[in-house]
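Dear Dr. L.,

I hope this message finds you well. Following up on our conversation about the binding site, I have prepared a predicted three-dimensional model of the protein together with zinc ion. For your records, I am including the exact sequence and ligand specification that went into the calculation, followed by the structure tokens. Please feel free to forward this to your student if that is useful.
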Amino acid sequence: MAMQPKIKRITMNDADFEIVGLSSFTNGRSCSLHAVCGLHVNPGDVLRLKATQVNVNGESEPAIACVLVDRGVDTCTVAYVPRMMADQAKVKQHINKFVMVVELYNDSPSTYKRSKSHQNLGMASVTMLTEDGGRDE
Ligand SMILES: [Zn+2]
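The resulting structure of the complex is given below.
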């Protein structure tokens, strides 16, 4: 094996992809406990990716929802995988599996991320987890 000039640093910020719509209440992101379910998500929370249909401008189309998992039980739908990401094989293969919230962009020190989050109604980065809760490499 060739010498590596740099060692890849794996941290909590080692995110796999981003999710959107945490501060929106449409398409099921509201329940009897929360006006906006996605506002109750924190870094470290576990979400399950779930295939579903959403209403976009009056048309039903396939989407991947992010459902908050509390003690092994699916609870609120909190966000969606952006359509461009939802079409990627690695994300499709992860449907019904878990991801963990890495960073909420609304709370990011980065102006760029906060602005991007504002445009996408609340964004977070997530990392994929294996069934037993470890990192999926
Ligand atoms: Zn809720």
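In brief: DSSP finds three helices and six strands in the chain.

With kind regards,
A. P.
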